[in-house]
Amino acid sequence: MPTPTYIPLANSTLGSTAATVTFSSIPATYRDLVVIVNGKTSANQATGLRFNSDSGSNYSMVRMYTTASSTSTTTYGLLTTGDPTADTLTIAQIMDYSATDKHKPVLIRSNITANNTAAHFVRWANTAAITTVAVEAISTTWAAGTTFALYGIASTL
Amino acid sequence: MLIPLGFLASSSGGVDTDYELIETNILGSAQSSITFSGLATYASTYKHLQLRVVGKTSLAGTNFIVGRFNSDSGSNYRAHWVRGNGTDVGSSESGSTTRFYVSRHDTLSNVFCPGVVDILDAFSTTKNKTTRTLTGNHGTSPNEIYLFSGLWANTASLTSITILPDGGGTLSIGSRFSLYGIKG
């Protein structure tokens, strides 16, 4: 018997600027999480994900965007480069987020209205189950009106 | 800004949606392949399918996990891809081939690779089947992100999907394969 899935867990629209939006107390009930962010930042700076308050250099990434590609290991999982003049839509698939036998893989697609489309893979080098997801504007802030949504994808029948 | 999940997070069931879990297979032992079978059952319910995979194989070096439809192992597939490797972006195609692409594979311990595969019009009998796959790895070089398109040159309605390592070996313990149906 199929199980209804893709459950909305939380959503928020910023009434004022904020550096970070954090989804906390995430239950281990689901298989994957999907984070969707749509909006602007106050400056052209990176935005990223941090799990379980980990700000160590534990996020490895490979990315392709327009005609370029980059790779890094840094203190956050890159979402996109924010833009103060145009909305950026980003969808991040956090796979097997509650598994304790794997590093956490994340697939990200982002579109910057002004000039860019990108796809990333991020690996959080930690086997702990994810219980919090912080969506951060690195060295800047998310603009008022930016929306954040978290969905859970079903785990079992 | 902190958004604690509470009431909303507890409502995991009893919600009518158009995106439904059909089956999940998490390997408790290594397998040469896994198969989602009996898919004809869902032909009247769903329009599209989605595979969500977090996988690993016994193969040395980076490689792929691949799939086949309806047990067809003939050269009836084609793939195109865009690939970023940390240095540049490239594109290529497979020519006639024997599979569609599901996910990357990585040899590092605890590193499993994700793949999200959209299978469009899975039960149509008037269209060849198309797939779209996003996958990547960062662990064992080369570290790469791929966006694939795939074609199965067959208008048959899907009855099965077989997933296996590309080039022999086995799928590893802990690998997860989930199939979802999408109504249209």
Describe it for me?
- The complex is a heterodimer of chains A (157) and B (184).
- With 157 residues, chain A is mainly β.
- Helices cover 0% and strands 54% of the residues of chain A.
- Chain A has strands at residues 3-4, 7-13, 20-24, 32-39, 46-51, 59-65, 68-74, 77-81, 88-94, 104-112, 116-124, 133-137, 147-153.
- In chain A, the strands form 2 sheets. An 8-stranded antiparallel beta sheet of chain A has the order 2-13-4-9-10-11-6-7, with no helix packed on it. In chain A, strands 3-12-5-8 form a 4-stranded antiparallel beta sheet, with no helix packed on it.
- Chain A is globular.
- In chain B, strands 2-13-4-9-10-11-6-7 form an 8-stranded antiparallel beta sheet, with no helix packed on it. In chain B, strands 3-12-5-8 form a 4-stranded antiparallel beta sheet, with no helix packed on it.
- With 184 residues, chain B is mostly beta strands.
- In chain B, 40% of the residues are buried.
- Chains A and B meet through β1, β2, β3, β6 and β7 of A and β1, α1, β2, β6 and β9 of B.
- β3 of chain A pairs parallel with β1 of chain B.
List keywords for this structure.
heterodimer, A: mainly beta, 4-stranded antiparallel beta sheet, 54% strand, B: mainly beta, 8-stranded antiparallel beta sheet, 47% strand, globular
Q: Kindly, what is the distance between the CA atoms of the first and last residues of chain A, rounded to a whole number of angstroms?
A: 7 Å
Shape of chain B: globular
Radius of gyration of chain B: 17 Å
Described by the principal axes of the CA atoms, the overall outline of chain A is globular
* Proportion of helical residues of chain B: under 10%
